[in-house]
Amino acid sequence: MLRQQDVGHRVVVRRIVGVRNDRALYSDALGELVDLTETHLTIATSTGPLSVPLTEVHRAKRVPASRRPTAADVVALELAANEAWPAPDQDRLGDWLLRSAQGWTGRGNSALPVGDPDRPLDAAVDAVQDWYATRGQPAMINVPLPLAGPVGVALDERGWDARPLTLVRTTGLTDLLAVLPPRDDLPEARLEPAPSADWLAVAAGRKGGLPDAAHHLLTAVDRVCFVHLHDDGELAGTARGTITGGGRWLGIGLVEVVSTARRRGLAAHMIGALARWAAGAGATDAFLQVEERNTPAVTLYGRLGFTTHHTYLTRVAP
């Protein structure tokens, strides 16, 4: 149970919200503990303050503070993310990665400038442009910040555009599982080793088509699974999970709930299924990538305990 010295720290609280069929129903909340009295605790959540009577608290604990990631941490996570989204056409420019996937997604069709390109920076940018030109594609570079700040400055000077900022957010699987217990009141989130035709149709609708390279991006990972959530016989939710980075990282992506099934907690339900799968396989942490302007998704992931590890900008040659 929490104590006064936990005030001001991030906590997770599981509370009893009702009873069904003689079984207690629980809900979890994550936020900063702002008050603790003899009768109530109050936490500041992403949606505002929440006061919970202590009689309704099933359990509560402090979430360990996370340290600021180092440059090595950012490189390791970026490489794990690259493993989770493997472009079929890849090359190297020194340590930099060059990736092409028939134009399907920015991550699959951009250079990743981590490490030494083995030549002066201007020459490296020229080489990136030449590599994509031979493939008939616009040159793009994903610039992790602040790690690749000098690359961003060089691209500014050359007039490269920038797409919206992307947040790379992480959490520990233990913490994620604490706020996402299994829910018997929702349809089963089935994990399959390959995507169904319906699953691929949802991905195609979201991403604007599905070229051959997309199938490689989706499936060419040693440990990958695809969530299929059916409601009344129809596919209502999809998600994809990977385990990369030497087995440490669960990568969560392509979380989608059809419009008629939203606001029921299905996205979090699918993420919980992926977290249990990855934890069972020995992974310890989870990451995802989300555009900063996607407020609903950013809010959801914040409620689940994800915090921003680092950010990146996708830069596009003029």
Please give a structural write-up.
By secondary structure, the protein is α+β, with helices and mostly antiparallel strands. Helix content is 27%, strand content 37%. The chain has two domains: 4-62, Roll (SH3 type barrels), CATH 2.30.30; 67-318, Gcn5-related N-acetyltransferase (GNAT) (Aminopeptidase, 3-Layer(aba) Sandwich). Helix 4 (173-179) packs across helix 7. InterPro entries: Acyl_CoA_acyltransferase, GNAT_dom, Rv0428c-like_C. This is GNAT family N-acetyltransferase. It comes from Polymorphospora lycopeni. Residues 189-318 form the N-acetyltransferase domain.
Which second-level CATH architecture of the largest domain applies? 3-Layer(aba) Sandwich
Helix content: 25-40%
Cα-atom Rg, whole angstroms?
A: 21 Å
The first-to-last residue Cα distance is 57 Å
Q: Give the helix tally.
A: 8
% residues in beta strands:
35-45%
Oligomer: single chain
Structural class: alpha+beta
Form type: globular
Mean pLDDT: 92
- CATH H level, superfamily name of the largest domain: Gcn5-related N-acetyltransferase (GNAT)
Low-pLDDT windows of residues: none
Number of strands: 16
Order of helices and strands: EEEEEHEEHEHEEHEHHEEEHEHE
Number of discrete domains: 2
Instruction: Assign the CATH topology of the largest domain.
Output: Aminopeptidase
- What is the highest CATH level, the class of the largest domain? Alpha Beta
Reported for the largest beta sheet, the result is:
9 strands, mixed
